[in-house]
Design brief:
Blueprint lengths: L2 H12 L3 H20 L4 E3 L3 E8 L2 E4 L6 E4 L2 E8 L1 H7 L1
Antiparallel strand pairs: 1-2, 2-5, 3-4
Length: 90
Amino acid sequence: MNKQELVASIAEKASLTKADAGRALDAAVATVTEALRKNDTVTLVGFGSFYLGERAARTGRNPRTGKNIKIKAAKVPKFRAGKSLKETVN
């Protein structure tokens, strides 16, 4: 499912126009992004949690040259599915 299909589904289920559903989806994504930027966790009970994880610095290898390179530590967004989402999918 791509973004247009998701917007259409939200519009249908919430009795909104596609434009309103698109703005609502964009606002939700922006809100989650801003919360993660502030190192907050976003929990949607029954659905799951968005949170930041830490990736340690490590040594990698350039596949083209074979030389070792240093890869910096980074914060990465992660998602942990909630219990009811897991039960619904399985």
